[in-house]
Amino acid sequence: MIALARYSLSMLVRSQAYIAPILLFGAAIMVLTTGDAGPLAETYSACALVLFLCMTWLTVVLVNTEDRTQRAMTATAAGGETRVLAGNVLAATFVAALLTLTGLIYPLYAGRHPITGPGLAVGVLAQLTAAFAGIAVGLLCSRLLIRRTGVAVLAAVGAVGAMVLLRVVPPVGPMMVLLGSEAAPETMLTPLSGLGAVSVLMVAAAAATVYYVGRRQE
């Protein structure tokens, strides 16, 4: 599985399709957090929102680096489409971890915040929750499920917009409400852990949907 994840990452790097979402993430984090002196939870809320958008985009381009013929050949060599899809998810998780680390550390360097253990834990949980939600949306909007690029773009924009704007739709909406509250970081950890679990389940459900619906479309 590690080899398949490395292969997915190498294909992503060669395609250079990662450049735009990575630049967007870096620019947005710099603009939103440089010089900030507000509550650390609100700062990480901005980082999580940007990460959600960028991981949706990155997951789509990661899965779409191979055309259907190339992917079929990879699946044959790897022992099945399930393994290739799991490799894609693992590769996306690795990218999400790197971006989460960036979004966790840069605001501390560029802003003026008191650093506490619970505050850092909130940042990690919030950004990983957003990242996994983005991976789930990206899988559902990839070529494996939606063949037409225009339709996929509209679906991604609609899904991201709905999950951000409709604050009752977990996990992103309730997470943004929680991080924007004045609650102490310690009290946020339990609900954030629950929302994180929801986002992981979303990835599993999205992968299963892509696999089974994709097989029917063959």
TrEMBL record:
Record bears the keyword Transmembrane helix: yes
- Record's superkingdom? Bacteria
Name the UniProt key words of this record, in alphabetical order. Answer: Membrane, Transmembrane, Transmembrane helix
Q: Where are the transmembrane segments?
A: 12-31, 43-63, 84-109, 115-139, 151-169, 189-213
What name goes with this protein? ABC transporter
Organism phylogeny: Bacteria, Bacillati, Actinomycetota, Actinomycetes, Micromonosporales
